[in-house]
Write a structure and sequence with these properties.
Layout: E1 7-11, H1 15-27, E2 31-35, H2 38-47, E3 52-56, H3 64-74, E4 80-84, H4 89-97, E5 102-105, H5 110-127, E6 134-137, E7 140-143, E8 148-149, E9 152-153, H6 156-167, E10 173-174, H7 175-183, H8 188-205, E11 211-216, E12 220-225
Parallel strand pairs: 1-2, 1-3, 3-4, 4-5
Antiparallel strand pairs: 6-7, 7-8, 8-9, 10-12, 11-12
Helix pairs in contact: 2-3, 5-7, 6-8
Amino acid sequence: MKTLQTNILLVEDDASLSTVLADYLRSKGYTVETASNGREAWELILIKHYDLIISDIMMPKMNGYELLKLIRAQYSHLPVIMLSAKTDRDDIIAAYDLGCDDYMTKPFSMDILICKMEAVLRRFRLINESEQTEWQLGDIVFDSVRQQLGDTHLSTRENDLLKMLCLSMGQLVDRNRILMTIWGADTYFNARSLSVYVNHLRKYLGEDTPIRIMSVHGKGYKLVSMDK
């Protein structure tokens, strides 16, 4: 099925589920290692390379939220998918706020998990194609590796969105392309989320900078310099 080796760390304290899911992913061509709690997972992440982390939330020693905080503090571009029995709206929002790239509630379809994994991995490969990682936006420096815009630390999606706009400075970036690359699907709710993230970035850039994120109705966005 796969031509490139993809290294996955599966973090799950349910031994039966961990075994079944790991075996299934290996049957699809992925390389999989497992950890039974967040602390064990973090020790592995510090010494090994992984292309994707799939993590439960409720675990002993260190839960999934705590693990995600550590990952985002040190490995800002490491994709993370959360798997959890938690279906409460606030729990799901908390995971996204901490920087997860997708969230699936248990029980889940393994085939759909594969689709989400590939969408997340494809998104990160596209975003990381460019070698440029830093831009001067007026008086503010945007560092996409550190996810830093001036003194503001950006969330993963804020960072990826601004990087896409910077890579096409002065050119229209199609709304559908943004949604498919960063969110993995062009849906009404994702489009609403995109609008929120654009407003966040506009606020971070401030009114004093000559850099503006322009909306092109029905088409997308472009990053422009008002000095030109």
